Amino acid sequence: MDGSTYVEYMKIALVCVMWYLCSASDNIIGKVVLSDFPYPMTMTMIQLLTTSVFLAPFLPCVGATKKGQYDRRYFFVMILPLAFGKFISSVSSYISIWRVSVSYAHTVKATLPLFTVILAKLILGENQILTVYFSLIPIITGVGVATMTEASFDSVGLASALTATLCFSLLTIFTKKCLKETGYNHLQLLVLISRIATACFLPFWALADLPRIIHNTEFLNSGKVIQTMVLLFCDGLFNMMHNVFAFTVLALVAPLSYAVANATKRIVIISGSILILQNSVTPMNAIGMLIAVFGVLCYNKAKYDQHQLAKRQQILPLVHSDSELHHHGISHMPHSKSDANFLKNGGIAHLNGTSPPPLANGHILLRDWQGSDEGITLIPVASHTPTEPTARGLTPVSSSQQVQYGNPSSRLHSRSVHHV
User: Fold this and answer.
1) Are 170 and 178 contacting, i.e. CB atoms less than 8 angstroms apart?
2) H or E stretch covering 81
3) DSSP letter at 356?
4) Half-sphere exposure in the Cβ direction for 299 (13 Å, CA)
């Protein structure tokens, strides 16, 4: 391994570690804050506001300056629904980690491939290969086992986690479509939809959460207001950096490597939350989580194989090769390497100027290619150099130097030139 490759690997490893730390910190801090400050919409607004304000000046540093073009109709049809989905998915995610443990919430979110396959079929009409469908079985099994053995199970938390996963799946599908159609940089699009979501849902937050916070005297008199505000700000920053590092990893590695890194990130979040928050986990609950994560890895590998298969079919289409030249219209005479087959079908008579037998023009070496539209020219290889007529004083070649067409034992050859 040379020095440049080693530096590249270290760069990827460092970005992945920062990605894992930011994602785990976002979830753990969110759980801590929601325990004393149960306002998921407020946390979502802080997250969107942080991304809107602090990410935009950072974009030129990472070369994310490309802005796309869209008309008024496209704004209402695509951009605005993306902002709405961003808000709903974030609120649902925070409700899930508020009502249930972080480890269980992320185990439920492992069902993302299931929603992706279903929605891709319903919306885009995409079909998957058989191994992709089989990979969904351990995901469903693992989530089912974890749900039945979850100590802090809550139906609202489960429904919120599933809603967040559904919204994330829809965002994944339509964000890719939007990036392709508008030419936006992914981080620029993130800033745009964050700003739109902040502007659209700020009145709802002012009507729903703000009065409840103002009248929550228990929280205001607990002495944790400043601490909570600092944690809210840190949570917003960690969420913003989580998105930046996620897109950076996606740009540095192959899709399969990114999918594996994303599954590893989920393991880090689950493990970190169990260790730091001291969640009670039974052995069967842990087994269910591991089965679900294993299913995600299998799904990622199956999707990668499907993409590679589709790519090979586009680059190298299936071609039927026929060595007997049937595609040249020679159905009655197989291609042969022997001189006997050539001589048997009128080669001598044809070359001597006599009328060839009916099948003579069927042989690959005897066909009249000059008038053919198949783009092939046969160039005979002579064993002598042609000379000028003897009238100019040149000595004719001897009979031993000429091609002995009348000698059946002479070997006949030809070169084929395909005009492309």
Assistant:
1) no
2) helix 80-99
3) P
4) 24
Q: Which residues of the chain have pLDDT under 70?
A: 1-2, 62, 66, 251, 254-256, 314-420
Q: Determine the Cα–Cα distance for residues 264 and 245; give it in Å rounded to an integer.
A: 14
Report DSSP letters for 2-16, one per residue: -HHHHHHHHHHHHHH
- Alpha-carbon Rg for the chain, nearest whole angstrom, is 36
The pLDDT, as a whole number, for residue 400 is 45
What is the predicted pLDDT for the residue at 420?
Answer: 40
Task: Decide if 346 contacts 357 (C-beta within 8 A).
Answer: yes
Q: What does the pLDDT look like over 101-133, one tens digit per residue? A: 898 888 888 888 888 888 888 887 888 888 888
d(CA 404, CA 75): 82
Residue 149's pLDDT is: 83
How many CB atoms sit inside 10 A of residue 190's CB? 24
Per-residue CA distances from 204 to 8, 85, 90, 211, 297 (Å): 46, 15, 15, 11, 39
**DSSP H or E run through 48:** helix 40-50
- Give the number of other CB atoms < 10 A from CB of residue 60: 9
The confidence score (pLDDT) of residue 410 equals 45
Q: Can you name the residues that pair with 414 across neighbouring β-strands? A: 380
Q: For the whole model, what pTM was predicted?
A: 0.68
Token pair in block for residue 91: 């609120």
Give the C-alpha separation, 364 to 265, whole Å. 64
